[in-house]
Design brief:
The chain is α+β, with helices and mostly antiparallel strands. It has 5 helices and 7 strands. It is globular. It binds coenzyme A (COA). The site of coenzyme A (COA) has 20 residues, from strand 4, helix 3, strand 5 and helix 4.
């Protein structure tokens, strides 16, 4: 398994992120300007993982809105998927969020995005509603997903179990 070390998003990461964005999210992906804005956004917490050559392999981010962690993006470069990179990033941001006293995570995900839905479900997210025709490119619905209280025993048992399984792969 590829063991990862995250760093905070910086301007220098953005060109590589754009390579991943266009492949991961299609025509309506975020622009360089969107990421630049996030660097200056006080609510933002964005992280990047680079491989040993310095190539950006993945990134994710969330906004801390009054104690709710709104996950805005999560992506892994083609060719590096299914290596537990997203899971390790999730474990990292959960710890960051707890330290910020965040109570829940939420996000929107395309209703057809089964890899992502499976991933979030594995980390305790449940569907609480649907935003109809949320995505402009194909009018696809978004599922609105929420975790339980991330400080709760129920959530912590799930996360400890997932962490143990990841550590067992090393
Ligand atoms: C979703 C995504 C971030 C997962 O990244 P990843 O590093 O490949 O995922 P991991 O290896 O950590 O897998 C974690 C879990 O995700 C789920 N998963 C990941 N890829 C999957 C796939 N192709 N099919 C089904 N489930 C999948 C599984 O539950 C997996 O756990 P398992 O290995 O025990 O089955 C990645 O597929 C991606 O970048 N997708 C494009 C961008 C995107 O859709 N982001 C989400 C926007 S809301």
């Amino acid at each position: 398994m590829i063991k990862i070390k995250l760093e905070e998003l910086k301007k220098e990461h953005i060109p590589s992120i754009m390579e991943i964005e266009s492949v991961s999210f299609g025509k309506y992906h975020w622009t360089e300007k969107s990421f630049l804005t996030e660097i200056d956004n006080k609510l933002s917490n964005y992280y990047v993982y680079k491989d040993e050559t310095g190539k950006v392999i993945s990134y994710c981010g969330f906004w801390n809105i009054l104690g709710e962690g709104h996950i805005t993006t999560f992506a892994v470069r083609e060719g590096y998927k299914r290596n537990k990179i997203a899971e390790q990033m999730m474990l990292y941001i959960i710890e960051k969020a707890k330290a910020l006293d965040i109570k829940w995570f939420t996000l929107e995900v395309r209703a057809s995005n089964l890899p992502a839905i499976n991933f979030y479900t594995k980390y305790g997210f449940e569907t609480s509603g649907i935003r109809e025709k949320y995505y402009q490119d194909n009018n696809e619905d978004a599922l609105i997903m929420w975790t339980p209280d991330i400080q709760s025993d129920k959530f912590n048992v799930l996360i400890a179990n997932n962490r143990k399984n990841i550590e067992a792969l090393n």
